[in-house]
Design a protein that fits this description.
This protein is of the alpha/beta class and 199 residues long. It has one domain (7-187): HybD-like (Rossmann fold, 3-Layer(aba) Sandwich). Helix content is 27%, strand content 19%. The chain is built from six helices and seven strands. The strands form two sheets. Strands 3-1-4-6-5 form a five-stranded mixed beta sheet, covered by helices on one side. The protein has a two-stranded antiparallel ribbon with strand order 2-7. The longest helix has 14 residues, at 143-156. It starts with 6 loop residues before the first strand and ends in a 12-residue tail after the last helix.
Length: 199
């Protein structure tokens, strides 16, 4: 059992660059759907880079949502564990100043405070170039799969989550109402046509 273990569920990525925001949107969706035990922390890691090191150091087990650009079929889901995670993280660096998650993991490991177990749930991005737009329709269809995989992994770690019996109020979203996906997409109407026929 892991009742005494600190578990961090982290979403990383940039919501301004289409599917690059998958990790953030996934942890946002997880927060909307599930109630969690007190030893589990949900976090929007965004593109904070090395600012995330302290949170990784404090986690006994780390579950990461992220977009990948690894030559898979668009929308394909992958789950990788432990030492395999660093080579898959970080679909795109937006600038030379953005530290990739590989560097975050390396920094935590260097200090000797590193999660005993690490799992990443990723999706192959379809579009990483459409600035200002939300997830492509194709990647959105993978959100249920991502949630199921996360629940399965947490159960393997001895953590049981439960579906919320009442909807989460808008003002209690993980990102804050102005940045949640519904509000964001209202403010930035979809301009693209992707493989699933979105407008």
């Amino acid at each position: 059992m892991t009742a005494d273990k600190n578990i961090l569920v982290l979403g990383i990525g940039n919501i301004l660059w289409a599917d690059e925001g998958f990790g953030v949107r996934a942890v946002e969706e997880f927060h909307k759907r599930y109630e969690i035990p007190k030893n589990v922390i949900l976090m929007d890691g965004g593109t904070q880079g090395l600012y995330l090191v302290q949170f990784v150091q404090e986690a006994d087990r780390l579950l990461v949502f992220d977009a990948v650009d690894y030559g898979l079929d668009p929308g394909e889901m992958i789950v990788v564990h432990d030492e395999e995670v660093p080579k898959f993280t970080g679909a795109k660096k937006m600038s030379l100043h953005q530290t990739g998650f590989q560097e975050v993991l390396s920094a935590a490991d260097f200090t000797g405070y590193y999660p005993s177990h690490l799992t990443m749930i990723g999706v192959q991005a379809l579009d990483l170039e459409d600035w200002g737009n939300s997830l492509t329709d194709l990647v959105k269809t993978k959100m249920d799969d991502a949630m199921d995989l996360a629940v399965e992994q947490l159960e393997k770690w001895g953590v049981v989550v439960s579906l919320r019996t009442t909807p989460l109020p808008d003002d209690e979203g993980l990102l804050g109402h102005s940045l949640d996906i519904g509000c964001y997409e209202t403010g930035f109407p979809m301009r693209r046509s992707d493989a699933t026929g979105g407008a």
